[in-house]
Design brief:
The complex is a heterodimer of chains A (771) and B (59). Chain A is of the alpha+beta class. Chain A contains 26 helices and 27 strands. In chain A, the strands form five sheets. Chain A has a seven-stranded mixed sheet with strand order 15-27-26-25-16-23-24, sandwiched between helices. A six-stranded antiparallel sheet of chain A has the order 7-6-8-14-9-12, with no helix packed on it. In chain B, 71% of the residues lie in helices and 0% in strands. The radius of gyration of chain B is 23 Å and the shape is elongated. Classes of the chains: A alpha+beta (771), B mainly alpha (59). Chain B: This is Cbb3-type cytochrome oxidase assembly protein CcoS.
Chain lengths: 771, 59
């Protein structure tokens, strides 16, 4: 290719590369900034995408055809989006195509009379981008509309605030009041005109939020923001009407703009995070293959499956419902449910659970439970319940905010009454200046500014933060509970020890096993992947659920269970033999993630207690616990046990952070005070978690804890400053000493200090990440 | 200061114009994807490339 030899990991990737060349889209390789995903050799069956009912729900008619928005995984950088865009536009019958690498979404407009959707998706799948259903056409449109609406608000706030500032400048610069009254009032009315849409259109989210909070009888952040904006705006209006000494329109407009900016930034960081998790949620057209009474097969939607139907599950597909196995033998990977990574052998009549993945051979299942009766649905319900019963962490911001608002309102009333008694003519003016100077601008900037900076820093670190209150929980955490498989350890096993018999050389035994396993897609093969293959194996036959047989170096070898390979009682290890005599025994073990130890130590240094809770047996858990500085290790834990463990810790007053990856961890992830899911883990686990690690490096957890704590510290500093400034200004305002210029200056300086302080979070983090 | 009576409405009109342009751009989806379009110009069109080569030979 281009005169250079390229090696491909599989025929799927090679085919994709060939097509890209032949279509003259080779620039993809020079544009991309991240390596592409691996392309599967077996393309998924996409005929389900042409179904009428699916298109009716997910596509909407536009001029010339239909339009649909899809999610895809494997889009890693803008070049992928570019490639998808070009590849689709080459197809006949496509009139519109667009891909967005940030959100992982692909938009296709096509003419159904010229080309079928499945053909287009086949092309995408061939390039390594598997299509998944997004949340429906209506939902997708709303998402885009929402994003645009926020952008509009921000833009209008920015332009309006700028203009308000310009006009106010003219008023400010009139130091000695030379300006004629009529000119001054003209300026004020124009400023009022410009400021109004900023406060009421751009600032609407705050006003609506305030109304919501008031209805729930609680004073929160939005109340603080809305009351300070409205205060500055309404006070200015009153002053304009009665020709008072000063107006504060600029403060109101700038304030809305700054807060909106902080909120849009924070939302963007979280929006990108959650749209990436959406992409991992992998909703597909839910189809199952049902066997009719006469043995023929048909594709049916999941919802039309009934108890008693027989469904066929292909290798690599997931079981659509709970059922009993009809075939004599099958292998299912139940990692999603149990956390156990090794596939489980099943014989006829044994239960098969929805969501488990069929391995090695296709299977037929007689359905016993559908829909909400399945084990999978039970777990999902458990997640929802756990989330609802999460102990609330009192939010610092809301506590300080509500105290402040209450105190301010009380002070205002007292002062008004006091001045009425002392000097009725100045009562209104003094109260107004008190309200303006102690306007909690800085206070309400304190949190959003810090959060916006932190979310950006977290995303750069590779931690996607999905829920707003995750950070606070992480900062307060006292205990960390780790799942074992897939979290502390890697999913693939490694070879730890070889025992040989009958004069076999260990290296020779490994070489023979590697040759046999080389082309097997079994998870165990990963253990031998690093071994250089010196032998050539021929005539490899897979004996389902038992092992492999093949000829290596003029001899027939059996690799698998002890009974299969060496005619001995099964002990769960991997044996190599000639069918009767044993030659070698391989000890396979899950491998600890390389950085697990370091991460655990770092967490300990941060003062956190570390627990391990695993579904595996006692010995495996103890072996792991002995290698890590853990407080307690719990073995044989079901999802419910893990949740009980976390609840127990919470009752003792601990704030628990949970780190897990599997579906079996999802309920406990939802129930813990703060939870982190691994990026390679189950989709439901990620949905239940507060944060998702995009790269499988555990070292990001202590880094994230540190960042969360620093954020908390900065927020507290900001609060201290904002409250301190107000305490200082209050006596001056009460005695009627505050000049308008002083009030404006104080407000601006305190807001500026708070924002700058929050920006430190970004700078410090950047240096840390690069180191 | 009578000139203000003209200048300020003028500035307001410019503001309205700016907001109008911004609203148009957002509605047309100009801000939906900030990364992919930037790559488009980095790639020459294959047809143009051939044409350019011909021109070079001719000149």
């Amino acid at each position: 290719m281009d005169g250079a030899t390229q090696s491909f990991c599989c025929t799927g990737c090679a085919a994709a590369a060939q097509w890209i060349r032949s279509a003259e889209l080779g620039d993809y390789y020079s544009l991309r900034s991240a390596a592409g995903a691996r392309v599967d050799v077996d393309l998924p069956d996409l005929t389900g995408w042409d179904r009428e009912d699916l298109l009716a729900e997910h596509a909407f008619p536009v001029a010339g055809g239909l339009e649909i928005t899809l999610l895809t995984d494997g889009m890693r950088c803008a070049a992928c989006a570019w490639l998808i865009d070009r590849a689709l536009q080459r197809e006949h019958g496509v009139f519109d195509a667009g891909a967005n690498a940030v959100t992982g979404r692909v938009r296709i407009g096509w003419d159904p009379s010229q080309i079928r959707l499945s053909q287009l998706l086949q092309r995408l799948a061939m390039l390594g981008y598997r299509p998944y259903l997004a949340g429906g056409a209506v939902h997708e449109r709303e998402r885009l509309q929402e994003r645009r609406r926020w952008l509009l608000r921000l833009g209008i706030a920015g332009l309006g605030a700028m203009q308000t500032m310009m006009l106010s400048e003219a008023l400010f610069l009139d130091f000695h009041h030379h300006m004629a009254w009529s000119t001054r009032d003209f300026f004020r009315w124009v400023t009022f005109l410009v400021c109004t849409p900023v406060v009421f259109y751009a600032g609407w989210p705050f006003l609506a939020g305030c109304w919501r909070e008031l209805k729930q009888r609680y004073l929160g952040m939005d109340t603080l923001v809305a009351s300070s904006t409205l205060l500055a705006y309404l006070a200015s209006m009153v002053e304009t009407l009665r020709g008072g000494a000063h107006v504060w329109y600029d403060a109101a407009a700038m304030f809305v703009f700054l807060l909106l900016g902080a909120r849009v930034l924070e939302q963007r960081a979280r929006g990108i995070a959650s749209s990436q998790v959406d992409a991992l949620a992998r909703a597909r057209p839910s189809l199952a293959v049902r066997e009719r009474a006469d043995g023929t097969r048909e594709s049916v939607p999941l919802t039309s499956l009934q108890v008693g139907d027989v469904v066929c599950v292909a290798v690599g597909e997931t079981a659509p419902a709970d059922g009993a196995l009809h075939d004599a033998h099958a292998v299912f990977e139940e990692a999603l449910l149990t956390g156990e990574s090794r596939p489980v052998d099943k014989s006829a009549g044994e239960p098969v659970y929805a969501g488990t993945i069929c391995r090695e051979t296709p299977a037929r299942i007689g359905i016993t439970q559908v829909g909400s009766g399945t084990r999978l649905s039970q777990l999902t319900r458990l997640v929802e319940q756990a989330q609802a019963h999460r102990p609330p962490i009192a939010r610092l911001a809301d506590r300080v905010g509500s105290l402040f608002v209450a105190a301010l309102l009380a002070a205002a009333v007292l002062i008004y009454v006091g001045w009425r008694w002392y000097d009725p003519s100045r009562a209104f003016e003094v109260t107004l200046s008190l309200l303006v100077i102690s306007c909690p601008c800085a206070l309400s900037l304190a949190v959003p500014a810090a959060l916006a900076a932190t979310h950006g820093a977290l995303a750069r670190m590779g931690v996607l933060s999905l829920r707003p209150d995750g950070l606070e929980g992480l900062a307060k955490a006292t205990d960390v509970v780790f799942d074992k498989t897939g979290t502390l350890t890697q999913v693939q096993p490694t070879l730890v020890d070889v025992q040989t018999f009958a004069g076999m050389n260990p290296d020779e035994a490994i070489a023979i096993a590697a040759a046999l396993e080389r082309d097997s897609r079994h998870p165990i093969a990963a253990a031998f992947a690093a071994v250089a293959v010196t032998h050539h194996a021929t005539g490899i036959r897979l004996h389902e659920g038992q092992g492999l047989r093949g000829r290596v170096a003029e001899a027939t070898w059996y690799l698998g269970h002890a009974r299969f390979a060496a005619d001995r009682p099964d002990d769960g290890q991997l044996w190599l033999g000639d069918g009767h005599q044993a030659f070698a025994r391989f000890m396979l073990q899950e491998r600890l993630r390389p950085e697990a130890r370091e991460a655990a130590q770092a967490l300990r240094q941060l003062g956190l207690r570390i627990h391990v809770a695993s579904g595996d047996g006692e010995s495996a858990v103890q072996r792991l616990a002995s290698r890590l500085p853990v407080e307690q290790a719990h073995a044989r834990q079901t999802s419910e046990d893990k949740l009980a463990l976390v609840r127990g810790l919470q009752e003792k007053g601990s704030v628990v952070a949970m780190v897990g990856d599997g579906l079996n961890d999802a309920p406990v992830l939802a129930g813990a005070d703060v939870s982190i899911a691994m990026g390679e883990g189950a989709a439901l686990a990620q949905r239940a978690a507060d944060m998702v690690l995009t790269a499988p490096s555990l070292m990001r957890i202590p880094a994230a804890v540190e960042l969360a704590r620093r954020t908390q510290r900065i927020i507290r500093q900001n609060f201290a400053w904002a409250v301190g400034y107000n305490l200082l200004a209050l006596p001056l305002a009460i005695t009627g000493q505050v000049t308008p210029a002083l009030a404006a200056l104080g407000m601006a300086v305190s807001s500026l200090i708070v924002t700058t302080n929050a920006l430190r979070l970004m700078r410090l983090k950047a240096s840390k990440v690069s180191s | 200061m009578i000139i203000l009576l003209m200048l300020i409405p003028l500035s307001l009109m410019l503001l309205a114009l700016a907001i109008g342009a911004f609203v148009w751009a957002v509605r047309k989806g100009q801000f939906d994807d900030m990364e992919t379009p930037a790559l488009d110009i980095l790639r020459d069109d294959p047809v143009d490339r051939r044409a350019a080569k011909d021109r070079d030979h001719a000149g």
